[in-house]
Structures are given as structure tokens and as C-alpha cells.
Amino acid sequence: MTASRTVLITGGNRGIGYAIAERFLSDGYQVAVTARSGNGPEGSMTVRADVTDSSSLDRAIAEVEAACGPISVLVANAGITKDTLLMRMSDEEFDSVIETNLGGVFRVVKRCITPMIKAKYGRVILISSVVGLFGSAGQVNYSSSKAALVGFARSLTRELGGRGITANVVAPGFITTDMTKALAPEQAEAYLKSIPAGRFADPAEVAGVVLWLASDDAGYISGAVIPVDGGLGMGH
User: Fold this and answer.
1) Domain Ketoreductase spans what residues (predicted)?
2) DSSP letters along 103-151, please?
3) Mean pLDDT along residues 204-217
4) Domain range for residue 97?
5) What does the pLDDT look like over 51-100, one tens digit per residue?
6) In what order do the strands lie in the sheet with 45-48?
7) 114-144 pLDDT, tens per residue?
8) Residues involved in catalysis
9) Residue 82 placed within a domain
């Protein structure tokens, strides 16, 4: 069944998005990724798009649909950070993160749900973060944008739950990416001490959860928030 399904992953050219694309490819999906630069994994289709640019998304989605057919699964992964303490945060640093991380999700989901409604089948998976619920000093903009995805997914569930469409949130914690590899040893050690699992996750561990949410086994799960954080944010 997966061979006939097309998945679109925003920001699929690196990190978690790249790992998600690899996992869907290995499971037989037709995989397309959006990227401002770089490419998705071999076997995927890469289209240029900026989630803050509506016209670029229109072009990208049209390209994917022409090559792969209707999009059945959407993974909204693209996001940015501009971390600084609130008292030092500029309006631009706040607005640009919200515009990308929340506005970008709105734009891409709005454009992908029409074929899902027609097919009476769809999976919308939003990549949030543990800090969206747990909070993080210096990340008021990022935490706010990621917390908002919970309300987005739950509202979408109430709108389209009866159309065979699910909408869920995955909230990763600290993941082994270029960002965490660049941490100073003492900073990495401090983060590790706060994680009950005592380690950072591999991006593939996030990808496995996303793949499962896209499967028929998860057809009765919607509006859920699934943490992949080693226990860091439990209770939140």
C-alpha cells in the first residue's frame, strides 16, 4: 500500500528531516522533500521552496503532484531558531521564527489537505520540540512556535477527523545532529545529565515514530503529542 503513497517532508535536506525521508524511502513510499538548498537522500525528489514564501510552495507542491501524484502524508519539519534572552530579543528575531515555524506549517498544510479530503485519507505530522511544552530560557520565540503546533494539530483534528485525516505532533528532545555535535563538552555534559535516558537520540529514532504515525496502525490516533526525548519532558 505504501508504494502508492506520496510523502512530502519540509526541510528534508538535513538532520531530522533527512532521516525521516530515508525511513519513508526504505518503507516503499514515494518521497519528496522541500529544501532551500541541498538535497534529500538518494531516491527522493527535492523541490526548492521556502515555507515563508507562498508562491514557492505553490510551485513546489505542483511539481511533486505532477511527478508523484497526490500527497497522502505531510511531515512539516522545516524550522529555524534565533535564540537569545527575551530582554535582548528583537521584534525581527521573534517574528521570523514564528513566521517560519508556525506560519510555514499553516501554508504547507493548507496547500496539502485538499487532495487528502478528496481521497478521504491523509496523515499530517508536525515536528515540534520538547521545549514547546517544557520551556527553555533564551527560546521564547522558538518555544512559542513549537507549542502552537499542538493547538494547530488538535484544531485540524476537530475539523477533518471525520474525513479519514489524522493530525499529530512529534516532540523530539536532544537529537544527535550537527547542532548538538557543535556543543562545548561541558554544555553537552550538562544537557545529558538532565535526560533520564542519559544520551542524545539518533535522528532515526524520531523517524521511526513519524513513520509509524503515517501507517495504518496509527489510523485512530489524532491530536496526540508524542515525545521522543528520553524522558526529558515527561509530565509536560
Assistant:
1) 5-178
2) IHHHHHHHHHHHHHHHHT-EEEEEE--THHHH--TT-HHHHHHHHHHHH
3) 98
4) 2-174+204-228
5) 999 999 999 999 999 999 999 999 999 999 999 999 999 999 999 999 99
6) 45-48, 30-35, 6-10, 71-76, 122-127, 165-172, 225-228
7) 999 999 999 999 999 999 999 988 999 999 9
8) 142
9) yes
Residue 190 resides in a domain = no
Tracing cell 522533500 back to the chain, one arrives at 33
Give CA separation, 194 vs 16, 81, 197, 198, in Å: 21, 21, 9, 8
Single-letter code of the amino acid located at 106:
F
Local structure of residue 38 (DSSP, 8 states): S
Number of domains in the chain: 1
**Quick one: pLDDT band at residue 3, thresholds 50, 70, 90?**
low
100 part of a folded domain:
yes
Quote the CA–CA distance of 75 and 224 in Å, as a whole number: 15
DSSP assignment of 164-216: TEEEEEEEE-SB-SHHHHTS-HHHHHHHHHH-TTSSPBPHHHHHHHHHHHHSG
Q: Please, what is the end-to-end C-alpha distance for the chain in angstroms?
A: 36
Query: 121: domain CATH number?
Result: 3.40.50.720
The pTM (predicted TM-score) of the whole model is 0.95
Does 17 fall in a domain?
A: yes
